[in-house]
From TrEMBL:
Listed name of the protein: DUF3899 domain-containing protein
Transmembrane segments: 41-62, 104-124
Native organism: Thalassobacillus hwangdonensis
Keywords: Membrane, Transmembrane, Transmembrane helix
Top-rank taxon: Bacteria
Amino acid sequence: MKALNIFYNKWMVLIFHFAAAYLITIATASAGSLVQFINILFYLSSFYLMVGLMMWVIKGGFFDAVTKSFRKTGSIFSKNQDYLLELEDKALPSDRISVSTVNFFLFQGILLLSGMGLLLIAYYS
């Protein structure tokens, strides 16, 4: 667990993303263009923001009622007689996602997007 502590530090992961995006830019672009670097940052930030926002919606409990209904309907149609007891034991989607994970993805996405925005301002200036 100690070896993975570097991945729990959100600033180290952010620096790693910028360094990885820069290395990919150097490897793929012949002159290491700024546009390629901005594009890679856009792809990274889009991924983190989409995953973070989806986790935020799930954590908010949007899918809990639908999940309960599907579980109840599935257990009624199955041969299981004590379906109400099983429904209490299963975790809901909002219980499976921690707030720190949601915050991590949103933090990474917002800061990568901000870095991309600053580079766009520098590029068009």
